[in-house]
Amino acid sequence: MSSRKKLIAGNWKMNKTSADAAALVTDIVAAVGRQADVDVVVCPPFTSLESVGKALDGSTVNLGAQNMHPEASGAYTGEISAPMLRAIFATHVILGHSERRAYCGETDAFVNKKVLAALKNQLKPILCVGETLAEREAGATLKVVQTQLEGGLEGVNKEQVASIVIAYEPVWAIGTGKVATTEQAQEVHAFIRGLLVKLFGEPMAQKVRILYGGSMKPSNAPELLAQKDIDGGLIGGASLEARSFVELVTVAAAVK
Ligand code: PGA
Question: Going by CATH, does the domain composed of 7-254 fall within 3.30.390.10?
């Protein structure tokens, strides 16, 4: 359907010990670790990055982190930097997830610093945007998404934008089992694509993958992934079990 390769990313959130994470990823690698039809990324907690990275070695599955600090090093207790992630061969980093915005007070300006730091260190940011239920009901969805997107991408140049992945995650659909309808999702994805065209021009905007996130699972993925501007998924719950995650990769591979 589009020339953009589909991307399925697993956001494991605060789940699994290092040993459990390695076991899960070993099963994922056995099933989809040699295919190249779909880009696959797993984002375990920091404590599992190393064990998961080792299990991924030699496979086509990529390693991502769930967050990082914008500074390269220094007195930031409890934080992790982009060079540290690069040193253990992470290629992606989730930034601005709604849980971090809600529970850790992350602002668009702070997320933007992280996006720029990730790019500087050759890490691909997965920049998350999305509205709450109250914002949707108030008719503010597109405005909220626009503010988060423009704020998060401030100072990003045309050459860098192809390395960025956007994840549209309606907050009301995360972990709730309430998935956005394909129409609701495609509307926002097309809006995001339009904003990217304004910011970076048509050819670059067409290269950016826009993932949907929020209760995506094998049963609802085929319809979502068939939409023109939905280029993959950021998967929470369904990424914690090899079977459903692998099935999502298979579904993505089948959508043309
Ligand atoms: P979910 O989470 O798939 O469990 O809804 C998605 C996310 O928060 O990235």
Answer: no
